[in-house]
Amino acid sequence: MTEDIVRTGALPEHAVRTALLELLAERRTLTSTEAAARLGYSSGLCSFHLRQLARYGVIEEAPATDGRARPWRLAQAQPPTTGDGFGELARGLEDESYRHWLARRAEAPAEWQQDEAFSTVVHLTPEELTAVADAVRQLLTRYRGRDTDPRTRPAGARPVAAVARLFPLLDR
């Protein structure tokens, strides 16, 4: 079921979450240390995203095989999401990740302490809105292979959240 959620876009395209969910679907249970070793991310980053997925009911703790490990598994019942692929779960995870970034930005190396958050209002037709969304997705696809194959990442590359929300502004 989780593979279908990832494939259909019910969860936003996010490298770490998508990779963790796919790995959980393959392995049944997973610790943050195992995920880090397999995916090439830090165990802290994997642990953060595993906890966020658990917070929203996508995964749950699995019975531990020893006293120290904290294994996770896919939840038995998935939370409801909207058909547009950008439901409450997606926004909550994105907002939480951004708040986490803002709170800990000073801990990042100097060259990584900036972000490129911006917003603007443009006047579009429904067809243009779709075209802009498609163009953003197309632009990001050139980096997609780096999600699953750490060998394709250039030196110094880190996971970066790319969040775009295109929606019409309604009269108040």
From TrEMBL:
It comes from the Bacteria. It comes from Kitasatospora aureofaciens (Streptomyces aureofaciens). The lineage of its organism: Bacteria, Bacillati, Actinomycetota, Actinomycetes, Kitasatosporales. This is ArsR family transcriptional regulator.
